[in-house]
Amino acid sequence: MKYIIYDIETSGLSPLKDRIVSIGIKTKEDERILMNDDEKKLIEEFWDYLKNHKKKYGSFVLVGYNSVAFDLYFIKIRSAYHKVPVMPIEKYKEHIDLYWVLTPYGSRKGKLDDFCNLFGFPAQYESMGDAVPKAWKDKNYELIIKHNEDDIRRTYQLFRVCLENNLIESEIDLRV
Q: Which residue from 9, 147, 5 is spatially nearest to 74, judged by alpha carbons?
């Protein structure tokens, strides 16, 4: 089973009034940051990437952190807004949210930074996610890209920790 680590950066926290400014993607073979001034084209590029990946490998699992409540939700709402068809993603079969894996039901405590620090891989680039909206407004694309790269790399490391410690039941190949 192939995996796709992903993370989005946005101009704010509401898909009703804010937009996606970048989407980070990491696989065994590829790492890229999708960014486009035209949000519709950015979203289309993301869905096209997933469709092409599925066509090439047959299946995949999307992996993110707090991705059910934020990333995937945001992408779906913004896709609908732009009338971009959404590729069906089956929860628990084709999507793993590491936040749900690592936090007990009911408590929901722990940010990506908290778990990454715990397991020994702190942020390489000191930029808080809440700096992204200002960076977008100021056209500081380098900060957004570095932040998004750091997030997908640390999400990947956290994913490996979860797999190696049997926190995720999966047929995913550990030789990633």
A: 9
CA quadruple 81, 86, 92, 98: dihedral, nearest 10: -50
Phi/psi-derived region of residue 140, left when phi > 0, alpha when psi is between -120 and 50, beta in every other case: beta
Rounded Cα distance between 39 and 43, Å, is 6
13-23 in b/e form (b: 16+ CB < 10 A) is: eebeebbbbbb
- Which parts of 4-69 fold into alpha helices (H)? 39-57
Is 173's pLDDT higher than 60? no
Contact 81, 108 (CB under 8 A): no
Pair of tokens at residue 96 = 């793993």
CATH number for domain 2-164, candidates 3.40.430.10, 3.40.718.10, 3.40.50.300, 3.30.420.10: 3.30.420.10
pLDDT for 32-60, tens place per residue? 999 999 999 999 999 999 999 999 988 89
Residues 6 or more apart whose Cβ sits within 8 Å of residue 116: 122, 123, 154, 157, 158
The residue assigned the tokens 């490998």 is: 57
